[in-house]
Amino acid sequence: MGASVGQGWNFDVHRFANPTQFMRIANAIFPWAAGLSALLFVVGLPIALVTSPADYQQGETVRIFYLHAPAAYMCMMVYGIMAVGSAAYLIWRHPMANLVARASAPLGAIFTALCLICGMLWGQPMWGTFWVWDARLTSTLILFFLYLGYIALGDAFEDPERGDKAAAILALVGSVNLPIIKFSVDWWNTLHQPSIMSKKGFSVDAGMLLPLFLMLGAFITFYIAVLILRLRSELLAAKIRNARLSQVAVNHAPQAAE
Amino acid sequence: MMEKLLTFLDMGGYALWVWPAYSLTVASLVGILVLTVRGLKAREREFEILKAQRRGGEAS
Description:
- The complex is a heterodimer of chains A (258) and B (60).
- With 258 residues, chain A is an all-alpha fold.
- Helix content of chain A is 82%, strand content 2%.
- Chain A has helices at residues 2-17, 19-51, 62-92, 95-127, 135-154, 160-174, 177-187, 206-257, and strands at residues 197-198, 201-202.
- Chain B has one domain (2-59).
- Chain B contains two helices and no strands.
- The chains are: A mainly alpha (258), B mainly alpha (60).
- The interface between A and B is medium-sized, with 37 and 30 residues.
């Protein structure tokens, strides 16, 4: 009994560790993610820009929030995925988990940059400053550098496996930053407003929640679709590397025989 | 009609902040999508060439 449970667990891990199986599922998801993302952008952007109401205090700048908040959510979610993938790679040597983490990093970096820039474009007219060195903004800037560091470290070694391992360790160490970002608005005094989500529900008008969730959905499905394209690309790169290596081996074989 | 469009573009006086935010977001997302697709296509071509070379090598 115990053995069969153990086998079932191993089987599950293996199923997702196998690139062919993994990509079969990913490729089935791809058209849905891509189509849904396009649809959500087409529906969400006009609502965010035109039909949703202006804020009674912020005026039309509230529209920046429909990009800033989903980007902020994405930059943390993608980092979380990257950290879990890195852990699975370091612990179980799960190759697909590493590829998911690697393929996610540039997307996460872009969402973080968008979160910061859109926040600054809102901060200047509303706070009167582009930037303050408070806990929320500083920890998000650190998140951006963690993404850049992860990408740079992964490519810094001649042996790709050493690069992957070093980058995975950085991703894991950097994950302590996630709760700091999340709770920074509660732990420290800050200009940044607290989360609109609480136990009491949402603290904004329904007319503003609709564009917010449409844009969030558009970003999530965009991430999934582009991630799958990047995974295909990473797997092809590995195949090309292997083909090159075996070609070198074939070319050298006759010389070795002489 | 024209007036309505101008009010929309003016964004209640905040055009300078709202429009750069939206243009940068759209440009970045389109940018990474294009880079990703281009990279994938380049690798697909490279892999096809390698496969063709290998078949050629076996034939000779």
